[in-house]
Amino acid sequence: MPLAFTILVDAITYASWLFVVSLGLTLVFGILKILNIAHGSVYALGAYAAATAVGLVTTLKLAPAFSLVAMLLAAAVVAAAVGPLLERTLLARFYGRDEVLLLLVTYALFLMLEDVTKLVWGVNPYFVSGPLQLFGNFQLGPMRLSGYDLLLVALAIVCGVATWWGLNRTVTGKIVLAVIHNPEMSASMGVNVQRVYTGAFTVGVFLAALGGAFTAPLISVQPGLSVSVIVVSFAVVIIGGLGSIPGAALGALVVGLARAASVHLMPEIELFSIYLVMAAVLVFRPEGLFQSVKARLI
Amino acid sequence: MSTPLLSARGLGKRFGAVVAAEDVSIEVPAGQRLSVIGSNGAGKTTFVNMVTGYLKPDAGRIELEGEDITALGHMQIARRGICRSFQIPQLALELTLRENLLVAVAAAAGHPSLWRAADAAGHGERAEALMRRLGLEADADRPTLELAGGVRKLVDIAMALARKPRLLLLDEPTSGVSAGEKFEAMHRVMEALAGEAATVVFVEHDMEIVAEFSERVIAFYSGRVIADGTPAEVLAHADVQKYVTGGAGQRA
Amino acid sequence: MAAPGDAAAATPAPGSAAPTGAAGATAVRAAGAATAASSRWSPARVALIALVAFGAVAVAALLAPKWLLFLTTMALSHGLAVLGVVVLTRGGGATFGQGLFFAVGAYVAALWPQLPWGLGSTDAVVRVLVGMAAAGVVGAVFAPLLARYRGIFFAMLTLALSMVLFGLLSKSNALGGSDGIPVPRPTLFGTELGGHARVEYLLFLLTAGFTLVASLVVAVYWRSAAGLVARAVAGNALRVEYLGASARASLATSFVVSGLLGGLGGALTGLVLGHVEPNFTNWTTSGEFVFVAVLAGYQSIAAVFVASLLLEVVRSFSNLYFPNTWQLVLGAFLLLVILFRPAGLGSLWQRKRPGGKAP
Q: Which CA distances in Å does A107 have to A40, A41, A60, C98, C333?
């Protein structure tokens, strides 16, 4: 049925950028035990930076293909600027403290970054249209698909595979896993645990910015982006399991499906269906669909 | 008294490949002072955790005065009169010493009142009495966060006493207490219990404490009971010396 | 789980001076500071002081300009929701979903006159009580579920539940959708308040009255055995269970109380603001309540309303003078409080008890 197909395609495209963002969130929780409310703010920063970068490409009359490079670079710049700074100067002070306390600290960061974005980029929306045109549309059976959506899917797959491979198949990844399991032991074996934390946080933040940068062409980039993104990402990582990479993928797909299905079938439940699933997972399988982080302590 | 206060039969517990308890059978008559010894990982704390309901045994049965309590959780077992203290004192650190005891007293009285003051209805006096019995009055209104480990230990034990338990399990009551103060602390605890007709099981590493304060000793090794008798008998036992004390009547 | 503001805070000393401030918060502050003190203050004495202070404020407010009355009323009604957050966090549950109760109270109070078969009423007191009760029912329904959780997962579940309501309300045409519903002025004991010369004053008095009663009730609860057990649950829930008391029952109670307070605050806010909207249950609103709670600390009821008033002042003036930087200021301030004064504002006027004295 064409409708089912439409829903599936919608779900997958939505899930793609959501996965990239949520991957970063779940990584940061898995490694640093921080549930970062400001993750959504970095997503917004990535989107704004991409808007500026693509605008620059247009102004400099460079080939349109450069805009993709520009978006990637924009995300990288945001990550490099924000990641180490936040982690070293602020978050590191709270390691080992209550997880909820850290949540509050990241909430404070979210508040601050909201205004920082407004101060730098103003309150008017930005539109990043160039990259969309690059890929055009094509016909797949009864459906018209946007080539850009395929790019997003490809991006999601690349990020997922790269992260998994990086953690499980490289020496650096093994070190990171060791630090997750036992920071003291790793430190006494000569691992620079500080650098692992800073690096991990920067990677997580990069993924958020990347998600924002590559989603920018699909939306109007304006204040308030971070507010909705962060709660949807929370839903994804809770559904999939905090700290789990396959969980983030599955969670993104579930959320994408819930949203696509409700948009096409029953628009009134679009928003609340996502959170209903999140609540249901918390009730029936609080570790998430993939994980073993203990949720209930009594 | 035909029915023992506590009867554990054939208790078994595994954690993966680790055997924490195997075929542990112990009967404790009412009023007995029993100490449990064994090196680290021998199964002492697992035994305590099973009796207090924190862990479910994989096999076996636990009875309290004939009643089967094997499947009960730690809260229900506490309500039936089995209370414990902890190796690392478990207190509400932001609360004062007095407040911690008031919580214990309120919990013992059941259904904490939503409007009557915490120290009303005799609760305040009861908390005071507990403090006096263990010599804790001086620090009554200091947050337990600020108190030394040895004092925290005593607070921990005082809280366990609030229910006037039938069976009291003390997990290493003198660990963390300086060598010079151990005997005094233990004396205080035992005196506090003297009027209570409570049965006491305490886990200990210090053999002098064991010899002085218990009338019966059970030694664990690799999850099994390897000796059971008077302190003199057990401490002289060949296996106990091999696996637990590593010498004649010294610290394990 | 240690509540963020709880590090080694000592019990408050009696007779602490109530700081000065705008009319309206003074009475509550005095009552709150007094009732947060030790059990040496008898309930009758406290109630008497509270009534006298309330009377004084009622008279003083007659002279206050309308904008100040409105500001203070909002501070009190929001403060009630924050008080709910404080009660719950003090009892072991850090919540990012207080907006759920805030919105339930607000919407029920807003819609109550439309109840069929003449059951509805336009009376403000009735509507506020009904709104509060409805939120309490919601709290009671979910309390057994929530009480099994701790820390991050507790917060996430409260967040999810509040966002479910947000989604429901945003897309519901019957309930006004994302624009919300306007709330015409209520009646008060038969008097129509719409167009009344003293409407701001009367609504302020109503709010202050509810705030006073709620504060006294919370103060009694905090002094009680259950209140102390709740603090122990926050510090070491497992030990509470080992003592034979149910940590779950305690947390569930804290949750219901926070629900009642949230609903009370929401109902009052809706009536005074003249408008209710889905944003009342957005996570950002819940976040603001948490912000004020952290600012106020978890030891003093009065501090909650002082902090709430501070936020209202900043919020009002920010729209005029610095609309694009006030969140920056808030965030920075929150960080500073967490870093340097984790016990919150309330710790500023509570002297530590001298330690080590036998009674």
A: 11, 10, 38, 16, 12
CB contact under 8 A, A296 and C148: yes
**C234 in reach of chain A (CB within 8 A):** no
Cα-trace Rg, chain A? 19
Q: Which residues pair with B12 in a beta bridge?
A: B59
Q: Which two tokens stand for residue B112?
A: 């904490």
Alpha-carbon distances, residue C338 vs A35, A37, A110, C331 (angstroms)? 17, 16, 15, 11
Q: Domain locations in chain A?
A: 2-165+200-284
Put simply, whether B198 touches C (Cβ < 8 Å) is no
C-alpha to C-alpha distances, B167 to B10, B36, C55, nearest whole angstrom: 20, 14, 57
Q: Say whether C214 sits in a helix, a strand or coil.
A: helix
- Spell out where B38-145 has E strands: 59-64, 67-68, 82-85
Spatial CA neighbour of C336 closest among C346, C347, C344, C348:
C344
Taking each helix axis as running N to C, give the angle between helix B149-161 and helix B179-194, from 0 to 180 degrees, rounded to the nearest 10.
10
What does the block give as tokens for A290? 């993939």
Chain B 119-178, CB below 8 Å of chain C: which residues? 119-120, 123, 128, 137-143, 145-146, 159-160, 162-163
User: Identity (one letter) of the amino acid at A208?
Assistant: A
Cβ(C295)–Cβ(C344) below 8 Å: yes
d(CA C217, CA C231): 17
| Interfacial C residues in 133-152 facing A (CB < 8 Å) | 145, 147-152
Tokens 């208790």 label which residue? B11
Partner chains of C (3+ C-beta pairs under 8 Å): A, B
pLDDT in tens, C82-112: 999 999 999 999 999 999 999 999 999 999 9
Q: Do B113 and C224 touch (CB under 8 A)?
A: yes
Packed helices A171-181 and A193-215: angle between N→C axes, nearest 10 degrees? 110
Residue with tokens 């002289």: B236
Q: Please answer yes or no on whether B118 and C225 come within 8 Å at the CB atom.
A: yes
Residues in chain B, pLDDT under 50: 248-252
**DSSP character at residue B56:** -
H/E element, C210: helix C199-223
Lowest mean pLDDT among A6-10, A162-166, C147-151, C191-195: C191-195
Alpha-carbon distance A107 to A35, whole Å? 10
The interface residues of chain B toward chain C in range 4-33, judged by CB-CB distance below 8 A, are none
Q: Where are the beta strands (DSSP E) in C78-173?
A: none
Neighbouring CB atoms inside 10 A of B138's CB total 14
Q: What is the pTM of this model?
A: 0.88
Q: What residue has token string 């700290």?
A: A243
Q: What is the pLDDT of residue A190?
A: 83
Q: Work out the minimum CA distance from C151 to partner chain A, whole angstroms.
A: 6
- CATH value of A2-165+200-284 in 2.30.140, 1.10.3470, 1.20.1730, 1.25.40: 1.10.3470
Q: What is the ipTM of this complex?
A: 0.92
User: Domains in chain B, ordered, with CATH?
Assistant: 1-81+165-252 (3.40.50.300), 92-164 (no CATH)
Q: How many CA atoms lie within 13 A of B140 on its CB side?
A: 17
Residue C2, SS3?
A: coil
Distances (CA, A) of B8 to A249, B11, B64, C6: 49, 7, 9, 42
Q: Which two tokens stand for residue C81?
A: 């929701």
Residues A252-274: tens digit of each pLDDT: 999 999 999 998 888 888 888 89
